[in-house]
Amino acid sequence: xxxxxxxxxxxxxxxxxxxxxxxxxxxxxxxxxxxxxxxxxxxxxxxxxxxxxxxxxxxxxxxxxxxxxxxxxxxxxxxxxxxxxxxxxxxxxxxxx
Length: 97
Hints:
Elements: H1 14-21, H2 23-29, H3 36-44, H4 52-62, H5 69-79
Helix pairs in contact: 1-3, 2-3
């Protein structure tokens, strides 16, 4: 009989993503000597944009599904109370209707 292992749940926010990837592992991956910086990301629910590409790559490497730069951008906006443009909504530029 083969044991069935459930795939890890897709993180719903920055804190869950950091838990899934591992605080120390992330700190080391980005060259931080201690976990304070990454711990601050977790506490604030925010990962600075310059790390997003590396975070997406790290999630892929560690088998954490559902993480993209779009997801990180949505989390960032939600954390700051910024309304998002509805998916597939037409965009207009200043003054155009």
